[in-house]
């Protein structure tokens, strides 16, 4: 009887030890499971926050795109209304020259340049439309009128307000000119690259500018020359010199031309 009881006690103790070992294992597994659950919950929370952040960014981006589109449409409507108003009132141009009626009849807003001369004018457009003129010097007329449709078109022109001097430059780099300030004007054009600005004034005055900001001139009014000298950090985009009388005390030049002889045919170039 005693032996049986001891055996039962031993079995119970062994059973207890096994249960305790299982409990330790289960506790360890439970902790691992809880850790995994917490990690998963934290990851899901982070993913949810990231998704919310992305959705917020997407919403803001859509709002910004919508705002930009509304501004673009508003600007488009504004330009459309402005264009309609311009069409209703016609081209905005005023001119006082010998060929005023001809100029106003042919001018439109697509014109790239209008040059007024002693007896007329010339207007330049792009390659498709070409140019229109009236009362221009004969040599310039022959130069332009003799060019075929397949040839390069004029893209820069200057007319003198008190003589038949002119300068014309074509899209292929070719140019032609006539001036009574022959030598200095010739040197300015021949000694450098293709100019971007050319202007002819009264009493043999002229101005030539290049894309890099360099320029040369002769006989410019002192006020204009002072303005050019005080703005050497800028480049001239366009220049036109009127035919108003210039007193001798206001004349100045960077490249003087002292030839006071009456212009003759051999001075043309």
From TrEMBL:
This is Uncharacterized protein. Residues 42-67, 259-269 have a biased composition (Basic and acidic residues). It comes from Symbiodinium pilosum. Residues 40-67, 246-269 are annotated as: Disordered.
């Amino acid at each position: 009887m005693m032996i049986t009881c001891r055996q039962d006690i031993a079995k119970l103790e062994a059973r207890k030890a096994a249960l305790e070992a299982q409990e330790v294992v289960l506790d360890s597994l439970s902790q691992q499971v809880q850790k995994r659950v917490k990690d998963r919950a934290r990851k899901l929370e982070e993913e949810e926050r990231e998704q919310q952040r992305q959705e917020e960014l997407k919403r803001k981006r859509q709002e910004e795109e919508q705002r930009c589109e509304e501004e673009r449409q508003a600007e488009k409507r504004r330009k459309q209304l402005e264009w309609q108003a311009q069409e209703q009132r016609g081209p905005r141009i005023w001119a006082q020259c010998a060929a005023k009626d001809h100029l106003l009849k042919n001018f439109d807003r697509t014109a790239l340049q209008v040059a007024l001369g002693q007896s007329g004018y010339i207007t330049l457009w792009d390659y498709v439309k070409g140019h229109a003129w009236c009362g221009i010097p004969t040599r310039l007329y022959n130069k332009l009128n003799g060019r075929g449709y397949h040839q390069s078109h004029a893209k820069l022109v200057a007319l003198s307000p008190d003589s038949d001097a002119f300068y014309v430059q074509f899209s292929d780099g070719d140019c032609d000119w006539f001036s009574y300030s022959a030598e200095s004007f010739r040197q300015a054009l021949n000694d450098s690259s293709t100019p971007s600005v050319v202007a002819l004034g009264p009493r043999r005055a002229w101005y030539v500018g290049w894309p890099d900001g360099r320029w040369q001139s002769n006989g410019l009014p002192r006020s204009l020359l002072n303005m050019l000298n005080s703005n050497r950090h800028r480049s001239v985009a366009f220049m036109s010199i009127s035919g108003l009388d210039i007193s001798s005390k206001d004349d100045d030049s960077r490249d003087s031309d002292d030839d006071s002889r009456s212009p003759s045919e051999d001075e043309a170039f």
